Amino acid sequence: MIPREIVNKIRRIQITTTRLVTDVFAGQYQSIFKGKGMEFEEVREYQPGDDIRSIDWNVTARTGDPYIKKFVEERELTVMLILDMSQSFYFGSVDKLKSQLAAELCSVLAFSAIKNNDKVGFIAFTDRIEKFVPPRKGISHVLRVIREALYFEPEGKGTDIPLAIEYLNRITTRRTVTFIISDFYAADFKKSLSIANKRHDIIAITITDPREINLPDIGIVKLSDPETEENFFLDTSNSRLRKDYHSQSLKKLEERKRLFRSINVDSIDIHTDVPYAETLLRFFKMRERKRR
User: Is-contact 207 182, C-beta < 8 A?
Assistant: First the structure.
């Protein structure tokens, strides 16, 4: 039996995110993902008005007549949500923890998918695979995904992104649209992400808290790395230290953006102190422009 407070919280997220899906993202999801996957159907003779980019030059050379490749749209997509549940995600200095905001993002994306008759699957990971929910359709299935995203208690503390990507490739036989939701405080994931992006449509969603960019001037504070449990002290009244912290933080964010661009992985930067609806909408519009 699920406690009433948990049910109420899931219901609030459902109401908020379904309203966003209906009022803000209506049509956006379909325009940038539906039809992205195409399956080869046949080769036929070129007809006036056909797109010359579809010409099959090998067949054309053999026959002496122009032929084109005909494709049909994959009508049903599988959307996979890969959620980082490492300890660094259970942090927040604004209204919500990064993990709570991530659960809302999972809800928006999942409801967008089922509204378009697509399947939704869910993988939670830390330094191990914590939870797998096979892709299915329906509101009750999405509500289960939200519940797992909000209240599943992971055993691991660290972050192993290549492990999560390897698991995705092992459990899927067809191309998917995959959202990886993480703060990406991990090393050595570039190669695995690049390889996976050739098979799937990978979108990296990074979640950042303002305290991960700027330190407040509050004197000496004790900080702890949640994944390594290492403790250390910082004198935040030191303006040079705050400036260096800010500079290094921005440098890491920029390096991460360059990494994604270098392997053609689209990314969305979500900040916990900025409403995410507008950020998602900008991303959807950007993807739509790229497809034209």
Answer: yes
Its CATH class, for the domain covering 4-31+75-291, is: alpha beta
- On the CB side of 232, CA atoms within 13 Å amount to 7
Q: Is 20 exposed, middle or buried (0-12, 13-18, 19+ CB in 10 A)?
A: buried
What is this structure's pTM?
A: 0.81
DSSP β-bridge partners for residue 207: 270
CA distance 70 to 51: 10
Per-residue pLDDT tens digits for 197-228: 999 999 999 999 999 999 888 888 877 777 77
Q: Which of 183, 199, 166 is nearest to 88 (CA)?
A: 183
Please, are residues 17 and 107 in contact by the beta-carbon 8 Å criterion?
A: yes
The candidate with the shortest Cα–Cα distance to 242, out of 211, 273, 271, 279, is 211
Residue type, 184: F
pLDDT tens for each residue of 52-100? 778 888 888 888 888 887 765 556 789 999 999 999 898 888 888 999 9
Phi, psi of 34 (to 5 degrees): -65, 130
Query: Taking residues 264-269, what's their average pLDDT?
Result: 95
User: Which residue spans of the chain are classified as CATH 3.40.50.410?
Assistant: 4-31+75-291
